[in-house]
C-alpha cells in the first residue's frame, strides 16, 4: 500500500487515464493485469493504487518507485510498451507525471 510522506526518498508517479464508462472496466482489468503480472515485479517498484471516479470516465493511478530511473526503465521495456499500445486503445488519453511530495496529512 502506498505510504505518502514528505521524508520518503522515492519517486511518486500519478497517471490519469480518460475513457468512456463503456471501457472503464476493460481498462481497469488491463491495468490490474499489468500490475499483477509485470509492473509490481519490476526493480524499484514500491506500491501503487488505482482509483476510479464515480462517472467511470477517469482512472487515477498512484505509484511509488525507489528511483525515477526504475519507473522509466519499466516504461521502456518491451513488455510495457506492448501493454501500453493496448491500454491506449481503451482510453482517450493517459499521462504519467512524476511528483515530489511536498506535504502529507493524516
Automatic annotation (TrEMBL):
SUPFAM superfamilies in the record: Dimeric alpha+beta barrel
Keywords: Monooxygenase, Oxidoreductase
PROSITE patterns attached to this UniProt entry: ABM (PS51725)
Residue span, ABM domain: 11-102
Pfam family, one: ABM
KW Hydrolase (keyword) present: no
Record InterPro entries: ABM_dom, Dimeric_a/b-barrel
Molecular function per GO: monooxygenase activity
Protein name from the UniProt record: Antibiotic biosynthesis monooxygenase
Organism: Shimia sagamensis
